[in-house]
Amino acid sequence: MDSNSNSNSKNAGSSLDALMSSFNSRILELQEFVIARSMYPASSIPDLSDVDAAVSAMELQVQTLKDNLRNEMEAIPKAKKFIDALLQQQKKLQNMSLYVPSQTADRMTLSNSETSRALFPEFSGLDSGSFEALKLDAEPPALPKEKKGRGPPPTWYVTGSELDSLSSYMRGRLTLEKVNAAITDMASYAEANTQLIAAPKKKLAENLWEKALEIRDIATMEGIKGKHFFLEADIKGPALKLDNTGKAILTVLRHLGRFNETRVGHHRVFILHKPH
């Protein structure tokens, strides 16, 4: 009987301890809830709602920016095609301008942009179909033959007195024969370029077509148009070469006013002068 009583007393004490422990845990939880409630009062809920709305709006803006960026990236190839087409058109118009007499050109009032719109109105919209509408000839027109003929390149030979007037340092060991032979070579280079300008594509060898296009572009440049010229790359003898003697001859001829030179892209261009 006593043993049963002791057992019941132990069980009751154990149950009471568990109940008190549970009660204390609950009190701690309630205390944490009270602290949390004091940290985030109900009045802050509208502020949190405003923040959430602002974040949502920013997310929409970011998505819009991404969409715009994607559209711009997709438009880049079209823009490149448009620029390439305009560059081709510009070259064609430059070649066409060679057909126009100078007095007529002075009276022209359309700007390049207006001419482009007049010739190709479909380019007012940058849609993919507009690029197909611009069909430029693969072969730019050859320069027109003048009624009186273009004439041969000038061969303004150096006289003995001109050569003697130079300083001994500039003249060096050059002879009159070497200098004038170089002038003959320069005239032959210029004549070859004149023939490239005037020749139609079907009469040119395939390996000369790319050079012909370059020469025709150079021939339209301000200061070169209508004049005889040759490139540094054309200097290959027989009398004039890009060696020390050839460079000395070019220095002498430049000093004597037989040519002037300029740069067009990566080309060094020599423009022949006519005798005064």
UniProtKB/TrEMBL annotation:
<dbReference type="InterPro" id="IPR009829">
    <property type="entry name" value="SKA1"/>
</dbReference>
<dbReference type="GO" id="GO:0072686">
    <property type="term" value="C:mitotic spindle"/>
</dbReference>
<dbReference type="GO" id="GO:0000940">
    <property type="term" value="C:outer kinetochore"/>
</dbReference>
<dbReference type="GO" id="GO:0000278">
    <property type="term" value="P:mitotic cell cycle"/>
</dbReference>
<dbReference type="GO" id="GO:0031110">
    <property type="term" value="P:regulation of microtubule polymerization or depolymerization"/>
</dbReference>
<dbReference type="GO" id="GO:0008017">
    <property type="term" value="F:microtubule binding"/>
</dbReference>
<dbReference type="GO" id="GO:0005876">
    <property type="term" value="C:spindle microtubule"/>
</dbReference>
<keyword id="KW-0175">Coiled coil</keyword>
<dbReference type="InterPro" id="IPR042031">
    <property type="entry name" value="SKA1_MBD_sf"/>
</dbReference>
<dbReference type="GO" id="GO:0051301">
    <property type="term" value="P:cell division"/>
</dbReference>
<dbReference type="Pfam" id="PF07160">
    <property type="entry name" value="SKA1"/>
</dbReference>
<dbReference type="GO" id="GO:0007059">
    <property type="term" value="P:chromosome segregation"/>
</dbReference>
<comment type="similarity">
    <text>Belongs to the SKA1 family.</text>
</comment>
<protein>
    <recommendedName>
        <fullName>SKA complex subunit 1 homolog</fullName>
    </recommendedName>
</protein>
